[in-house]
Amino acid sequence: MVNIQFITHTTKRYSYSEGANMALQGGCRWIQLRMKDYPESDIIKVARELQPLCIRYHAKFIIDDHVELAKYVHADGVHLGKEDMTVADARRMLGDEYLIGATANTFEDVHKHYIDGADYIGCGPFRFTETKKKLSPILGIDGYVSIINKMKQNNLRIPIFAIGGITYNDIPILMNTGIDGIAVSGSILRSDSPVDEMRKWINQ
């Protein structure tokens, strides 16, 4: 599984599609389309733009929240937030051919998603971020170390991706906690050259 996930985000400069396209050009091979509070018709329109790009770059294409929509557009999978459908229910709907990720903030969250059949975990937030509403408690480095240690103690193995306000300089210390990868959004799009910034993150 790739170790950098790009979560789509819109800014005054870039649309959802433009941001994802630049992330792909920079070497990212995992795109999650997250469009909170948009009608499904708008999400489908952007998904139709992004899916061919992801195919061209051999990248995974994940839809945030919308299980039925992920199946409708034939995405590679779905990512479920803490207030969305359960992983177990999504697995019953999608079967084993789709990837299912889930958001976690505690070891208990991770354990439940693992038991329910998740393929990976988006764990956070690392620090405060403006790109997400209703933030769970901030984890910081100590939070990841605690969760990873409890996973080892319980012989629980599932890919963990840190998310939430992560900057380039955070990468080494975060990866040293034992996590498998990082999800990023705002740090890429706020840079002067998102393509070059993503390339720098990939190389790190």
Considering the protein shown, what is the CATH homologous superfamily?
A: Aldolase class I
Question: What's the total count of β strands?
Answer: 8
Integer count of domains = 1
Please identify the structural class as seen in this structure.
Answer: alpha/beta
Question: What is the percent of helical residues?
Answer: 40-55%
The topology string of helices and strands comes to: EHEHEHEHEHEHEHEHH
- Described by the principal axes of the CA atoms, the overall outline is globular
Mean pLDDT: 95
Distance between the termini: 17 Å
Number of helices: 9
| Strand content bin | 15-25%
Round the Cα radius of gyration to an integer and report it. Answer: 16 Å
CATH topology: TIM Barrel
CATH top level? Alpha Beta
Explain how this protein is built:
By secondary structure, this protein is α/β, with parallel strands linked by helices. The protein has a single domain (4-203), classed as Alpha-Beta Barrel (TIM Barrel). The protein has 9 helices and 8 strands. It has helices at residues 16-25, 40-56, 67-72, 87-94, 107-116, 140-153, 171-175, 186-189, 194-203; strands at residues 4-7, 30-33, 60-64, 77-80, 99-104, 120-123, 160-162, 181-184. The protein is globular. The protein starts with a strand and ends with a helix.
